[in-house]
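Milestone M4 deliverable, item 7.
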Amino acid sequence: MEYISLEQAKQESGVRIICTRLVPGPWGEAAKAILRLRKVPFKVVAQAGGEENQEIVEWTKHRNAPIVMYKDESPRVRAMEIIELAERLGTGPSLLPEDLTDRMLVVGIINELAGEDGFAWNGRLLMLKPGYEKQGEKILTTPMYKDYFSLAHAERALHRVREILDYLSSQIEAQRDRGSKYLVGETLSAADVHWAYFSQMLDAYPHEQNPMPGFLRKSWGIVASSLGEYDPVLIEQRDAIFAEHLELPIDF
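Output delivered:
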C-alpha cells in the first residue's frame, strides 16, 4: 500500500482515508474496498496502531481508524458515513439495495459487524481479555486498553459474537435456498463487502493472501478458539465474494 504524508493529505481536497499502517484492520479494509468498487479515487494516510497519533487527532478530532476526509467536510468515521460518501461520489452499481426492506437489512448487518457492540467490537474484547487477566489493572493505562477495554463488556463478548454469527449463518442459508450467494438480495452489497473483511478476524486468509504480522494473526486466532465451532457457510460465503468481487492479496 502506498501512503502519503499527513502534511500532503492536509493539502489535498479529494478523498483521503487514514488507516492503521501494516495491518488489515477490517474497518479500514472494508472502507477501501467500498471506495474501489464505487470507483472513487482515494489516497491513504498511515496511522500507527495502538499509539496516540496526536497530529492526526489534532487534524481530524478522531483517534480511531479509518477516518475519511473529503474536501472541507466533516470527518467520516462510521461505516455508513463512508458508504454514503462512496455512493454519492462513485459510479456503477450501488452497494445499497433500492428495495427498502433489503436496504434496512444491509444497514443492520453492517452495524452488527462494524458498529459499537458488534462482531468486531466484541471480538477485540476477546483478544484483549487475556492481557487483562495476566497483568490486571495496570494494563488499563495503555492506549489500546484505555480506549477499547471494559471488563463488564468483555464478560459478555463471546455471547454477542456467537449470536451475530448465528444470525449470519441463518441468513446465508436462507439466501442459498433462494439461489443467491449474497447476504441480501441478488447482487453484491456493502454487507457482503464488510463480512468479507471482518470475517478475517474469525478465519484469516493465509499469509500469501493476507500478509498480516504474526502477532496479529495470533491475536485474531483468539476469536475462533473462544468460539470452538462455527458454521462453515460463513467462510464459504466470504470466499465466494472474494473470488468474484474483491482483490487478493489484501493490500495494506
